[in-house]
């Protein structure tokens, strides 16, 4: 075997009472695409932050190309040839894409970085971009960009230096559509042929078989398995089982047994110029309605319009059969509509506040009735119950939301939605970044909600929409693609969302 480019042995890290990593052994070879797997909170991002110099390990050793290294800053890691795109890349919203790329590289202007000239970097960024196949104007402000475009900027930022040996991507595909994911994989394969190793974190297990050569599984802060993908295929091991440490049942709950009840939410001819047109649909009590749409299909805007965050230019919205004018999210909440937004970190969470503070935000009325002491006790009990339902880990209500792993932050927003006791629930991309075990729990929750409410699941994950919903439609370039009488099969739904056509 070739000398590994990067090794870690016996690495540990503690955050206060939480032992995030213990005795981690890990290696990646030259030109190897290595997937790093584990449930939410297993320690993946913590390990990556150590490899990229953002935080320091408490113990253990790291080597790069056989030599021991000590990373005290991100620049140390970059200088050693390790480039990282973090789980939630921090870009400066009011600067252009190009400026963000430079910002990451100019830093103190010492040593290596003093020699990087702007023209050279710009040329390199443009050259990389040409291969990336995501149409992107680097002169645009990052704040104006979509999630996909921001991810692309972050990847370009990571790659825009010389001598990169290892590229680390912490859940890059969670914001990408199927098409863009293919582009990313193509780019990864190119880098691989140039001898660059890639460490790749994902919760989409089928991606492991599509792109990786090998994988490691983290569980509770230790590496419990390392295997080649060929080996895994041959022995038919279940990746989900390795991650969870136990057998997994069906991810999706059974479909609704009874026929759906009355229409709780009716959209008629709803439209906003250049975003979506002539949307007519109903969500009924007792059912989960699935809307499959890629990024840019208008799904995001549609969900925000139903939630009163964007005004409709045309058409009507009826709730319980009565026409409503939803001029604000407050008005939508009062009408009994709750939205779990897609871009949760910017729209759904007060990051510096404890989980306990975040959960009742959406339902202050429920949280504020009765005497203060009673209220506090009830709130705590409700919140505890909810954290159990979404499998929040650690199940702590006093930890600031920012102290949770990425997937667990998502669960806090979901808990907030469940606490809202609405009649109509709209979940946008509900399980992005959520591990497979917790996903099953969340789908089961949706099914439970749908017993008394109407649930709408809007997602760019076709399998999720098809798996969880009783009835599905697709949104393509702002138009609804409705199924033929027999309903959509999984493949028809995919076609409808990607091509805008119903199969003959
Ligand atoms: N800044 C922090 N302060 C306190 N605890 C933290 C901090 N960062 C992470 N942790 C804890 O360390 C553990 C590992 O978290 P980490 O973010 O590495 O998980 P992960 O495997 O990346 O999960 P996910 O799939 O949800 O992104 C978790 O229990 C988390 O709550
Ligand atoms: Mg993470």
TrEMBL record:
Entry-linked SMART domains: AAA
Keywords, alphabetical: ATP-binding, Nucleotide-binding, Repeat, Sugar transport, Transport
PANTHER family, per the entry: CARBOHYDRATE TRANSPORT ATP-BINDING PROTEIN MG119-RELATED, GALACTOFURANOSE TRANSPORTER ATP-BINDING PROTEIN YTFR
One protein family per Pfam: ABC_tran
Protein name, UniProt field: Sugar ABC transporter ATP-binding protein
Domain ABC transporter per the UniProt entry, residue ranges: 6-245, 259-502
Keyword Repeat set for record: yes
GO molecular function, one term: ATP hydrolysis activity
UniProt entry tagged with the keyword Repeat: yes
Chain ranges passing through the membrane: none
Organism of provenance: Paenirhodobacter ferrireducens
